[in-house]
Design goal:
This protein is about 30% helix and about 20% strand. It is built from 19 helices and 21 strands.
Length: about 650
């Protein structure tokens, strides 16, 4: 995969800017949606093809209109459990065969569950699109539902739930969502409960699948260097034989409208104070582009206000806009130390919301937010699978073809449009939750765990074993130290090639790269040894699920992508087949951020998404490695929390 050229990104940004007419408001015509890019199979499957000629990859996201809001009483968590079960195998492929085929194609396969949808995404080379779609169709349409695997998968999902419940911040988010979305099915958490998961029978899961996974309840979003004419016969071959069913009964949800602004004060076991403020709005397609400018404006204002008041940098703000099938949520969040008065932070947030609602918007202020939003949109579109996952909500709310006109809609927004959107949206009464640490929470420490067992083997290998009380899974990790430092001169990267003889060759588009890591902050210069298909065909002895890199450790230990766990010192970030930078945990504790577009959410246990407008920032707390799974909770969070603890990511 060619290394992205910054000039290409700037050109895309300039193209987005050029889409805006010189004197037009939000109500002015924008580029019409390309009807030729959308089609529907006879069985009701909707398909949208988004042409991205510059992309070297193609991605297909199957969006199923089935999330926690579609679950009947007593079925809480079935949507998320079903997502896991579909990866356990089909009637013709075992779980191992599925992932062996994906990795053999140099591909990427993942799933995620939200309140209003479940998504299954696959990505790979355009010339393999027929095989990718065939595999995706088999996964969705022919699950095996092996009775022997159901209890195992239920235990995995329960462990994920326990991990979420153990974090006070997760409890804050669930309680605030229950208040902000009260009276609607959106108030329920996606993960369900251990009791509800344990009560689900195989028959109940299969019945839910049959109601919701019919082709006429699925939308396929395909993005890459392909056309609708190329894609249509491939989709028909994989999905065309599926039989439609009567669509599930769907009740339109009316956004809750509190009669006046509401503020709730609650206790938390977290060591920091937190604020979450939400405004729930009905979906309006014509208002969306202007509303998208409010989060970056609010966050920038709050950061400036913090500096004016001389408050500590540990006071952090976030803002975002989340679109669901029936409603849109504008969110503003803050986390701050105990010594900062909660009244001060609440009045800061409320004051900026009221100022913006009154139309207080300087032209230069709008221009900065507008440019930033367009640049972030351009950057996100370069990573096609991230962009599709990020825009799945808009596709369900406004129709798939809405995505084709989105760049033009954003580019056409003017300051007066944002003022009008702010007056309408911010006049809606908000629901806010203040979370104050319990007495002694500031001094709280993690529960004690037994010390690790250490033993030096006769061959010099140091073995360490760490007990994790309450955990239901086992992880094994092998780390080879100082490989790069021992390489002979002129052979940089050679230490990464030898692996155990049982390992297999690299497949498809997996790659060998090397980078120079400079301390705990940034690794700029890198070498990617040509195109993966050319380079890796002759690299033997490398396991088919690994990315192999040579790295010259300048300061601290280099953290390899596959080796990362919470206790290690750094975070390795990879994007577009390129090692972008290595960010140490300490640097992030000082307020650095990880760009959302550079994170592979597939292996992050908990992602706090501040939204496109929140300075592009994503913070991760208590990250752990999951098995090819995007956690359901990540899209239901109400803002950024704390600092990055650890990230493992695998791009393809």
């Amino acid at each position: 995969m060619p290394t992205p050229n910054p000039r290409c990104r700037l050109a895309l940004f300039a193209a987005l800017l050029a889409l805006a007419p010189p004197r037009a408001g939000a109500g002015a015509p924008v580029r019409s949606e390309d009807a030729r890019a959308a089609f529907r199979l006879p069985n009701g499957l909707q398909v949208l093809v988004l042409e991205a000629p510059a992309s070297p990859l193609v991605a297909s996201l199957a969006v199923v209109r089935a999330g926690s809001l579609d679950e009947d009483a007593g079925q809480a968590g079935v949507s998320h459990l079903l997502e896991h079960l579909l990866f356990d195998g089909t009637t013709s492929r075992s779980k191992e065969a599925i992932f062996r085929e994906v990795y053999g194609l140099g591909g990427y396969l993942n799933g995620f569950t939200r309140k209003d949808l479940t998504g299954y995404i696959i990505m790979g080379q355009p010339d393999q699109l027929d095989r990718l779609l065939a595999l995706q169709a088999d996964l969705l349409l022919h699950p095996a539902f092996d009775p022997a695997k159901l209890p195992v998968t239920v235990d995995v999902v329960k462990e994920e739930l326990r991990s979420a419940v153990a974090r006070p911040e997760r409890g804050e988010e669930v309680r605030h969502a229950a208040r902000a979305l009260r009276g609607t099915p959106y108030a329920a958490p996606v993960l369900g409960s251990e009791a509800s998961l344990g009560a689900l029978s195989r028959d109940a899961v299969v019945a839910y699948y049959r109601r919701h996974y019919a082709p006429n309840n699925v939308t396929l979003l395909i993005m890459g260097p392909v056309t609708a004419r190329q894609v249509e016969p491939l989709v028909a071959a994989g999905f065309g034989r599926a039989v439609p069913e009567a669509p599930p009964r769907e009740t339109r949800v009316v956004p809750p409208a509190p009669p006046e602004p509401q503020l709730f004060t609650d206790r938390t076991a977290a060591p920091c104070k937190a604020l979450a403020l939400s405004i729930v709005l009905p979906n309006e397609e014509g208002l969306y582009a202007a509303l998208a400018h409010l989060p970056p404006l609010l966050e920038a204002r709050l950061q400036r206000r913090r500096e004016e008041l001389g408050l500590p940098s540990a006071l952090r703000f976030g803002a975002g806009l989340t679109v669901h099938r029936d409603l849109t949520v504008l969110e503003v969040t803050a986390t701050f130390p105990r010594e900062v008065a909660e009244a001060t932070v609440f009045e800061m947030v409320r004051g900026e919301v009221e100022r913006l609602a009154a139309g207080d918007l300087a032209e230069g202020e709008f221009e900065a937010a507008h440019r930033g939003l367009l640049m972030e949109e351009a950057s996100l579109r370069e990573r096609i699978h991230y962009w599709l996952m990020e825009r799945a909500g808009e596709a369900l709310a406004f129709g798939p073809a809405f995505l084709t006109s989105l760049p033009a809609r954003l580019g056409a927004v003017r300051a007066e449009d944002v003022r009008g959107a702010a007056r309408r949206a911010l006049a809606v009464p908000f629901s806010a939750s203040l979370f104050v640490p319990e007495a002694g929470a500031a001094a709280a420490r993690p529960s004690p765990v037994p010390p690790p067992l250490r033993e030096a083997l006769p061959n010099g290998t140091l073995a360490l074993a760490q007990e994790a009380p309450g955990a239901h899974l086992v992880a094994v990790h092998v780390l080879v130290r100082d490989r790069a430092r021992r390489e002979p001169a002129g052979t940089a990267g050679i230490a990464e090639i030898p692996l155990p003889s049982a390992a297999r060759r690299l497949h498809g588009d997996q790659r060998v790269a090397r980078a120079r890591v400079d301390g705990d902050r940034v690794a700029h210069a890198l070498d990617v040894f040509g195109h993966p298909r050319v380079v890796l065909g002759d690299v033997a002895g490398v396991h088919d699920q690994q990315e192999v890199r040579g790295a010259e450790a300048v300061h601290e230990q280099v953290v390899d992508e596959g080796a990362l766990r919470r206790e290690e010192a750094g975070v390795l970030r990879l994007a577009d087949l390129q090692l972008r930078r290595v960010v140490g945990r300490d640097a992030l504790d000082r307020g650095k951020r990880v760009l959302a577009g550079d994170l592979d959410l597939a292996h992050v246990a908990d992602v706090e998404d501040a939204g496109l407008g929140a300075d592009g920032g994503v913070f991760v707390r208590e990250a752990a490695v999951l098995d090819r799974h995007v956690p359901a909770a990540e899209r239901d969070h109400f803002g950024p929390r704390s600092a990055v603890a650890g990230v493992e990511r695998r791009l393809l």
